[in-house]
Amino acid sequence: MTRDDPLTVADVARLAQARLPKELWDYVAGGSGAETTLAANRAALDEVAVLPRVLAGVAAPDPGTRLLGSASSLPLAVAPMAYQRLLHPDGELATAEAAEAAGVPFVVSTLASVTVEEVVKTGATTWFQLYWLRAPGVVEDLVARAEDAGCEALVVTVDVPVMGRRLRDVRNSFVLPDDVVAAHLTGGGDGTASRAHAREAGTSAIAAHTAAAFAPGLGWSDLEWLRDRTSLPLVLKGILDPRDAVRAAGCGVDAVVVSNHGGRQLDGAAPSIAAVPSVVAALAGQAAVYLDSGIRTGTDILRALASGADGVLVGRPVLYGLAADGAPGAGRVLSLLAEEFRDAMTLAGCADVAAVRELSTVRTVRA
């Protein structure tokens, strides 16, 4: 990939789709059910219209900020995404390298195909994403590994009691190849991990694996236990209802991620951007608010912050870059988003991220 090739994330996505087998493209790009929430994420972002300020004297905006206390060159972190070695042999190491070069945090998944210890060695500011697992002691072990490796935050995903019914994967009888594993879950000895590699017609092997591995009964008491267990900043990912955001803050959570899991869990859930203003209002500064699901341009980042978010998590676009060209491809995506965000800041009359969050928005309905 050269600088003259892709000019937008959409361009990178087309490159990725051309290079991936259909079942892999479907796994990355697809959503759950009829994919109504997947589509709604994009439509709702497009309905957020920003009221730019003028005569602001802004020539060179500063997009830098702090996320959970760490400096970041953008109000952006790379979202947790599983099994990245499906898309490139370097997997999470390549995307972490791209995040480090871009100066933004990288969130490594419980289901990463590379261990957290290896990811931290890239030098990226690393957060660890935690799924709650059935196996006794494994959650505590993962927390300890994240702390010992030098992770700077824990991100607990709370919207996956079970995996949403992702029909593209079911129709493709999707299965992991033998050389791609959940690197943090290989020592269980109970055969659970092998389910991700067992093809059965009309089923998703990844869904079968998560059904066996994940604890569906995660509750507030578990979160309280975790808050007492670790001194790391704690983030809850998968919040849409402001009542849950307020309860999370009461449990000592440092940030919430307003997210519908990129349209991959409850089909029919609200678009993430639509939930941001009410969550921000309910929290009233008790915890930071980040947006996940649907960010594809620098203008989308501007929209998210103008709607009240403190930052965004970006997922699929980085995977598109990884599939297209490894670390350089993922880096190209992040540089495109940075360039677009700086341009949007200038055009909106914003010298810094604080000014972006002071912008007003209106909702438009597109025919």
Automatic annotation (TrEMBL):
The active site is at residue 261. Its cofactor is FMN. This is 4-hydroxymandelate oxidase. Its EC number is 1.1.3.46. Residues 1-366 form the FMN hydroxy acid dehydrogenase domain. Pfam families: FMN_dh. It is an enzyme of class 1 (oxidoreductase). Belongs to the FMN-dependent alpha-hydroxy acid dehydrogenase family. The lineage of its organism: Bacteria, Bacillati, Actinomycetota, Actinomycetes, Pseudonocardiales. FMN binds at residues 80-82, 109, 129, 157, 237, 259, 292-296, 315-316. Glyoxylate binds at residues 27, 131, 166, 261, 264. InterPro entries: Aldolase_TIM, Alpha-hydoxy_acid_DH_FMN, FMN-dep_DH, FMN_HAD, FMN_hydac_DH_AS. The keyword Transcription regulation does not apply.
